[in-house]
Amino acid sequence: MTENAAAPTDLLIEKLLSGDRLALARAITAVENEGAEGAAIMRGIRGHLGHALTVGFTGPPGAGKSTLVNAFVQQQRARGHTVGVIAVDPSSPITGGAILGDRIRMTGHSNDMDVFVRSLASRGHLGGLSRTAVKVLDVMDAAKKDVIVIETVGAGQSEVEIAGVADVKIVVAAPGLGDDVQAIKAGILEIADILVVNKGDHPLASQTVRHLRTMTGFRTDGDEVPVLRTTALTGEGLDRLADTVAELGERGRADAPVKRLKLLLGRVAMDICERKLQTGDPALTDALADAVATGDADLDQAAEKLLMAVLERLK
After folding, report:
1. Helices and strands in the chain: count of H runs, count of E runs
2. Which of 150, 182, 206, 262 has the most CB within a 10 Å radius?
3. CB-based contact 226:200 (threshold 8 Å)
4. 10 Å Cβ neighbour count for 248?
5. Which secondary-structure segment (H or E) carries 84?
6. How distant, in Å, are the alpha carbons of 168, 217, 301 from that of 221?
């Protein structure tokens, strides 16, 4: 019974690893559902990762990220690369599903069998990436996509987790940010491998490029962060952006699957702790809350005691 039940999943994995489009869609759905089949798929592909170059696009709302991603995908296809796109949308508070629908904004690729676009809900996760998105990235990698593009929600400073999964991190800014640049500098600007001022035909684009160049520092490899100007609607600057991505991407791809695993390990561990806290000892939680409320205990100390109680139950 067990062997017969496992056979369809094994066949799905085999087709996925050959790049079959239908198998990719089915595998992503299984992984999103986080059931036994999804877990089996993740185990089955673990030794087949590291093919794809992963490129993350993030930045504040209004910078034109989706339009730029669309143009970047077209550029990659012109270079003969197969592409997967993970568009992380805000979640509906009622259904938990993605509500912006980046697939609608990328209908130009709907007839291209070498472009696979998936919209995912952020599921309330403020870092810009749900743990499901990281798993979907691995599934696309296993399906031999040459380039995987991740576009995050664009909620501001919290969008830094993309640094843990993307080989190249692109932060997109709009012309005329002014003081807003300083406001976001402590967050997403500092994860950038490349800074892009989109809508480059805007009168304030050149000024914003100069402003960013005075503010940016150096990447971990010691090189200065490039500041590029693009106009996604016309394709201006896309060749240079693609060349820069390709150059930087070759440097950090070797350990990409392990980086993603580290992020998943931490995320799953936190999820387990959260579930245990919710189903833990109500009496202890009430007592600690009362102690904090009356000033008899410090909040951090009380939280640590509650966490230690959870860890004891996990032993």
Report:
1. 12, 7
2. 150
3. no
4. 21
5. strand 83-89
6. 13, 11, 39
Distance, in Å, from the CA atom of 266 to the CA atom of 127, rounded to the nearest integer, reads 13
Q: What is the three-class DSSP state of 149?
A: strand
C-beta separation of 145 from 176 below 8 A: no
Q: Which residue has the tokens 């949308």?
A: 89
Sign of CA dihedral 185, 188, 191, 195: negative
What is the DSSP track for 88-133?
A: EEPBPTTT--BSS-HHHHTGGGTT-TTEEEEEEE-TT-TTS--HHH
What percent of the chain has pLDDT above 70?
77
Phi, psi of 108 (to 5 degrees): -65, -20
Flag whether pLDDT at 54 surpasses 90.
Answer: yes
d(CA 128, CA 161): 7
Q: Would you say residue 33 has pLDDT above 80?
A: yes
pTM: predicted TM-score of the whole model, two decimal places: 0.80
Host H or E run for residue 53? strand 53-58
DSSP state of 146: S
Which positions ≥6 away from 294 have C-beta within 8 Å?
none
Question: How far is Cα 195 from Cα 257, in angstroms, rounded to an integer?
Answer: 24
